[in-house]
Amino acid sequence: MKKTLVFLFLMTVFSPKLLAQTNDTLVAYYDKIEKSFKYESGKITLSEGEGILNVPKGFKFLNAAQTQDVLSNLWGNPEDKSVLGSLVPDGKGVTHSNSWMFVISYRGDGFVKDDDAGDIDYDDLLKTMKEDVQAENAERKKGGYPEVQLVGWASKPYYDNNLKVLHWAKELKFGTDEANTLNYDLRVLGRKGMYNISAVAGMDELAEVKASIPGVLKSVEFNEGHKYLDFDADTDTVAAWTIGGLVAGKVLAKVGFFAIIAKFGKIIFLAIAAGFAAIRKFFFGKKNQATTKIQEETASLEENNYKEE
Known about the structure:
The chain folds into 2 domains: 2-36 and 267-308, no CATH class; 43-259. The chain has 8 helices and 12 strands. It has helices at 2-14, 16-36, 64-74, 122-142, 206-217, 243-248, 276-284, 293-308, and strands at residues 43-45, 51-54, 59-63, 83-89, 101-107, 111-113, 148-160, 165-174, 181-189, 194-202, 220-222, 238-242. It has a 7-stranded antiparallel beta sheet, with helices on both faces. A hairpin with a 5-residue loop joins strand 1 (43-45) and strand 2. Helix 1 crosses helix 2, helix 1 (2-14) packs antiparallel against helix 7 (276-284) and helix 2 packs across helix 8 (293-308). The protein is globular, with a radius of gyration of 21 Å.
């Protein structure tokens, strides 16, 4: 693969025509990948949590297996078997440079008390969260993943007491990436657990993500008998954390910050379209953060293309 990339670099430097041909080939290849995904709309029965998803206007649904394929094989994230699916904006495919999505999962760890929602000092909490992220970086490096820096709030935490939904956004920096990652988190609370809806996007997409929040907030709902107000103190389990613990990420303690999802591995070969400067930066700049099956297949495709030339 490395030899193929070096050959690609040299050939595109000296052959603008070949650069254009290669770019056209790659674009066609990723368009083929995009068309292989099967999106859904309407009412979706979620496989866990006794809830449904009403796909909101402006979005399409991608099931669990396909979402995991995107997150792991296209975007370079660790496998997460808790993923139930995702919401992808209309008009944006997962292989596009400006793609982003809401990833949906469920945690059935009990009823989350919201008594502390109005008493949390989120600025003080942010300091603790930054320290926790730094502490987790040693494990991330051992696992072959880049270090993470929690830059700050992209949107300060807010708890909607009427809908029983908590939402907040973090700005994250992965490794030496120039562009920071946005993780916009929603927690829809229920009787026995909660649905996690997390936007995986770039910081330049913050306005677009925030504009979609009102519709997405109401898209997931628990079935009758499983809603937050159906809680029975005599029979139901109470979670070990409260609202503050959810924002701080204490729920993720067992898996650490590997649970943070990023776009950093996404479609690195499309940088070819930017010309010599982008290619030079790829080879002599930051180290590739994820060697994925899709990328390996792309390298093979490129090599075959040159043989035909």
